[in-house]
Amino acid sequence: MDELFQYIAEQTKGFFPPNDLDEFFRQIETEDKRLKFTSGSRSNLERIIKSIFDLRAFVSDALKYAHYVETLSAIAHNSNYLTDVIVRNPGLIYSVLIPSQLLPDVNETKLEKEIATGFSRIKNYERRVKFLRKLKDKHMLILAAADLLGMKTPEAVFQSLSILAKQITRSLFVISLAEVLNRKKIKAKINYVIASLGKLGGNELNYSSDIDLIFFFDKNRKLKESGLKAFEILNEAITLFAKEANKQTTDGFLYRVDFRLRPDGKYSLLAKSYNDYLRYY
After folding, report:
1. Residues with Cβ < 8 Å from 239, sequence gap 6 or more?
2. Contact 192, 247 (CB under 8 A)
3. Buried-exposed string 214-252: b where 16+ CB fall within 10 A, e elsewhere
4. According to a count of CB atoms within 10 Å of the terminal CB, is the N or C end of the chain lower?
5. pLDDT band at 54 (very low <50, low <70, confident <90, very high)
6. Rounded Cα distance, 262 and 272, in Å
7. Phi and psi at residue 193, in whole multiples of 5°?
8. Residues 75, 59, 99, 251: is their CA dihedral positive or negative?
9. In the 8-state DSSP scheme, what is residue 266?
10. What's the pTM?
11. Average pLDDT value over all residues in the chain
């Protein structure tokens, strides 16, 4: 911890009496011993602290509220992923340090409205996908922090993770389909259904689950503007959707999506008609 303490002392030089800074260091050392930090835990905590915009203000707050160091230490010790989320988005730190923000479960209606508000400000497809990645990061961080601190039951966590995944994947497909239709200058509406299977279908998604999806549509009609059929447009949109969902980026990651449970398995079309599904099942 010596290197981290030296960094903190340099960044806050002349701002705190020596006793105050020593107390902050004692808080970190207490968590180090309590959680039995590994070298990875210490590295994560160092990365988090070095990402904080205003370290002086944070130390000042942490001296008043002991749970600040406890919370960040728990995140650093238990999750490289959550550490990465904070380092990418340092502004989210206080969202996990205010207990009242950790209590609510993910609400489907509020989340849908949050996405709609974000999309109303952003028209570009790539920037909308980036917005969804950041949105997922925020909610995953809050959920996982509440989980680590024992503020939620496993059932509540699984339910919230499932709601979050459904809303984000639904929104990603809506904009992916709109992007394909826009590229081809098609205004026709295609009626389709996205069905979730597996853990997501049962609202039992955990932090590392794949998402099992199947897509189907009403009729394989020809679209007037292009002569293309509904399945061609939907398969192209699903391909774009899967590419963005699975992509690892500096802005984060969405979900590993899997379509292998669809009728006829991984070698069949990504979307088939409702009647095709009825015949298969």
Report:
1. 270
2. no
3. bbbbeebeebeeeeeebbbbbbbbbebbbebbeeeeebb
4. C
5. very high
6. 9
7. -135, 135
8. negative
9. G
10. 0.88
11. 91
